[in-house]
Amino acid sequence: MKGLAKSLMTTLSVFARKPVTRDYPNYHKPIPERDRAFPLLLWDFEIDEPFCTGCHACERACPVECMTVLMKDNPNHRSQGGDSSRRKIIDKFWIDYARCMRCNICVEVCNFDAIAMNNTWQGHELSVHDRSDLVMDLPQLLAQSKTGNLKEWVAD
Amino acid sequence: MVVRPEIEREFETQDLLLNVGPQHPSTHGVFRMVMEIDGELVKDVVPYIGYLHRGAEKLCETMDYRQGIGFMDRTEYLAAFNAELSYVMAVEELAGLEVPDRAQWLRMILCEMNRIASHLMFMGAFGIDVGVFGTPFIYAWREREAIFDLFEEVSGDRMMYAYFRPGGLAWEVPVNFTERVREVLKAVNQGIKDFDGLLTENEVFIARTRGVGAISAADAIDFGMSGPSLRASGVPLDIRRTEPYLKYAEVDFDVVVGQNGDVYDRYLCRLQELRESVRIVEQCLEKLPDGPIMPEKMPRMLRTPPGEVYIRTEAPRGEYGIYLVSEGGNRPYRLKVRSACLSNLQALKHMSVGQYVADAIIVLGSIDIVLSEVDR
Ligand code: SF4
Ligand code: SF4
Hints:
CATH architecture of chain B: Orthogonal Bundle
Number of domains of chain B: 1
Mean pLDDT of chain A: 83
Number of helices of chain B: 15
Largest sheet of chain A: 3 strands, antiparallel
Largest interface: A-B, 28 and 35 residues
Shape of chain A: elongated
Bound molecules: iron/sulfur cluster
Structural class of chain A: alpha+beta
Distance between the termini of chain B: 73 Å
Low-confidence stretches of chain B: none
CATH class of chain A: Alpha Beta
Number of helices of chain A: 4
Structural class of chain B: alpha+beta
Strand content of chain B: 5-15%
Number of strands of chain A: 7
CATH topology of chain A: Alpha-Beta Plaits
CATH class of chain B: Mainly Alpha
Helix content of chain B: 40-55%
Strand order of the largest sheet of chain A: 4-5-7
Shape of chain B: globular
Order of helices and strands of chain A: HEEEHEEHEEH
Oligomer: heterodimer
Helix content of chain A: 10-25%
CATH superfamily of chain B: Cytochrome-c3 Hydrogenase, chain B
Radius of gyration of chain B: 23 Å
Radius of gyration of chain A: 22 Å
CATH architecture of chain A: 2-Layer Sandwich
């Protein structure tokens, strides 16, 4: 009986503590800036084009092969009378979020700091009705960076 | 009045085959066993595994060393840091990389914290197995959540960390790391006290677990068991002690052993190990040096000379070994994971034959299997 009483005392003592439950959909806990949701492309506000040059480095390094990259000549390059120093630029880019395993390798191999892991709640709340909706194309990948609500975090 | 003779008739009896799983709440994942039962007693157990086989070993052979880390996380999702550790240590051994001190201490802290998280998970799930619905599970979840929040701040992910790299760590820990760890440890200490109070002396719990599923030390060794499930039988085998890796030689901790090797002892061993882990982490925090977390010169693409190596570490469930063969180049020629769960599972039949059906479930729970590690 002594053990049982002790056991019940334990449960009782918990009543006096503050609740730790988070009321999730109504409350979003602040997430750290190194949180890794899914990879995103970044937008170069100075020149008004993506940082990504379409160099395929991330595509080759991705362990699950969930990226597809196509590059094109940059119409905005200096030689064409534009003001960008990027000779090549990204044409089409798809990332299949359903396959991505969020390993951060694409971010590490990119030489142009053009890709980053989404560290906001939008990156986590991605439920869709159809898997094919998780294949993100270039405008979708750039959309969040354009709004500028990504938190700064560069892994060194 | 006619006195009828006592009717004596032999009924034909037949043993019942009972299928449990693969989708059953108390098989801790997708594990299936077919039990042959005679009334309430288990006569035979035939386990079926492989429902979670993803070919992680083979996948890693098609990837370079860095790409493999993510798959190693997924072979042991409840203690991913420990799984990563074995893998990166094997690669380091082959490549001859020297890991900086700070990285080693940090790895130790993270692995021990992960052991705590994993054992807490065991406590919760085991509580449910023995029939205390909810309470232990929620207690375990509470502390585990604190640990996962910490891991998220460090590595960016809650379960699949991909944080250890051959040579060191992917990036530096946050500036307030030590304070945060201390905070979490405080919560964990409270959690351990709660479990101690809730279960250890509880007569119902003892009646349910003591003497159930006992296995002798000799049998346990024969089955190749390791980790707390082996130590509960009284064998003081802990790789952290017998073959110290990282900095385990420099910290002070006890190897917890049980006496009877029954389900209760396996629970008690893990509870005590939680305390030991807290002790280890505290010492690590004291000794944590400053310095780099990666060796000075790291090639962009890691290549290893031909050779083979077997590295084992003490994961929460036992010996997690990596056998790595390289033929040169940037990817393994062969990678084999020695999973503690798979070996521990071999003893299931030995432990549950002769027990009641309900006890077979807690025997299964007490060896703390993770099916992703069994199947890989
Ligand atoms: S994201 Fe970086 S690595 Fe990938 S294609 Fe663009 S520039 Fe190259
Ligand atoms: S995070 Fe990993 S899996 Fe996802 S796209 Fe990048 S490299 Fe591929």
